[in-house]
């Protein structure tokens, strides 16, 4: 099988490579937002959940450099190695690293010329027809990759996602949180800011044997979550008044951008109170919230992952309860926050 390009969210390249390798495929290259994978057909049938998208490589030549003359030479090289059957309709999306004396539309139009046939340029802002095939060109500084998507839609568009709410998380990022949580069958998993359910539904796809509870103060959010899946228990509830006991907390609290919350400390206290002593919190936070959690003596931060999503740069924080932060009966010890 040809090589495959796995496109990722910035910051998730390493975790995505781990997921791909764990599935038995060989990662032969890692660069910003991309893995190059020597894969079997199984990767196409069962793609990685952390992938933003996936493309099958049809040709690869040397990166043309920063000059337009190099781009022209790359086009000549591609004509010698790239052979495709005539297509009904197709579009091309290009990206590259570094400063160039050409833009992405120059690259896309070049590939459109090389491929021939009914190519739909994006240069004038027009939208290609929905039934097109989608080609991807990536210039990573070493190689010019030309690849085609083997699916009708990008991988990040989940079939379960019928409804969203303000602040809904990008599904591959939620899948990364689920992977970091080390989920196991029989565990109780809570999201106290569940919104439309993205985090828990991605977690359930990773580990269907756990029990999931999503809670949100917004009845509209809970309605959206129920529309997305009836396989998880959803309820209207206050994240500042949690009950019960859980093994994992996976959550995406508001970052204070489109939805605001006050100080995160009261919520951290609630997380610590309901979390089992060997439990784990995986939360995606803004930088201030992440620093606040790290400074809280009731928690031990086990990992921090900076990502880029929705034009923002939040942090996925993995934390455990400090072993001395909770006294008998779940009462916080003095000084535990």
TrEMBL record:
Any Pfam family matching the protein: UPF0020
Protein known as: Methyltransferase domain-containing protein
InterPro entries for the chain: DNA_methylase_N6_adenine_CS (IPR002052), RlmKL-like_Mtase (IPR000241), SAM-dependent_MTases_sf (IPR029063)
Record organism: Kribbella albertanoniae
PROSITE patterns: N6_MTASE (PS00092)
Organism classification: Bacteria, Bacillati, Actinomycetota, Actinomycetes, Propionibacteriales
UniProt domain Ribosomal RNA large subunit methyltransferase K/L-like methyltransferase: residue ranges: 158-311
GO biological process: tRNA methylation
PANTHER family: THUMP DOMAIN-CONTAINING, TRNA (GUANINE(6)-N2)-METHYLTRANSFERASE THUMP3
């Amino acid at each position: 099988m040809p090589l495959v390009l796995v496109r990722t969210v910035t910051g998730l390249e390493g975790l995505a490579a781990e997921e791909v390798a764990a599935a038995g495929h060989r990662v032969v290259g890692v660069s910003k937002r991309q893995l190059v994978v020597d894969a079997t057909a199984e990767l196409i049938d069962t793609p990685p959940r952390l992938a933003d998208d996936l493309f099958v490589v049809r040709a690869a030549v040397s990166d043309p450099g920063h000059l337009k003359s190099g781009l022209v030479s790359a086009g000549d090289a591609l004509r010698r190695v790239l052979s495709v059957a005539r297509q009904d309709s197709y579009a091309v999306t290009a990206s590259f690293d570094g400063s160039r004396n050409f833009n992405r539309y120059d690259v896309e139009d070049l590939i459109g010329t090389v491929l021939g046939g009914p190519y739909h340029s994006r240069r004038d802002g027009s939208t290609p027809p929905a039934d097109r095939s989608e080609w991807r060109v990536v210039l990573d500084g070493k190689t010019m990759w030309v690849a085609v998507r083997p699916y009708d839609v990008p991988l990040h568009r989940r079939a379960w996602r019928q409804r969203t709410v303000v602040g809904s998380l990008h599904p591959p990022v939620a899948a990364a949180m689920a992977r970091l949580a080390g989920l196991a069958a029989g565990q109780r998993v809570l999201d106290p800011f569940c919104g439309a359910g993205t985090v828990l539904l991605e977690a359930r796809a990773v580990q269907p044997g756990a029990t999931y509870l999503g809670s949100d103060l917004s009845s509209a959010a809970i309605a959206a979550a129920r529309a997305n899946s009836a396989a998880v228990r959803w309820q209207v509830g206050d994240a500042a008044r949690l009950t019960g006991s859980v093994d994992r907390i996976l959550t995406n609290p508001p970052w204070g951008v489109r939805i605001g919350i006050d100080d995160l400390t009261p919520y951290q206290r609630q997380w610590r109170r309901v979390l089992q002593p060997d439990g784990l919190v995986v939360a995606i936070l803004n930088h201030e919230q992440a620093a606040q959690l790290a400074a809280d003596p009731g928690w031990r931060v086990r990992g921090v992952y900076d990502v880029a999503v929705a034009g923002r740069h939040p942090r996925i924080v993995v934390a455990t309860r400090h072993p001395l932060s909770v006294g008998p009966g779940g009462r916080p010890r003095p000084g535990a926050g």
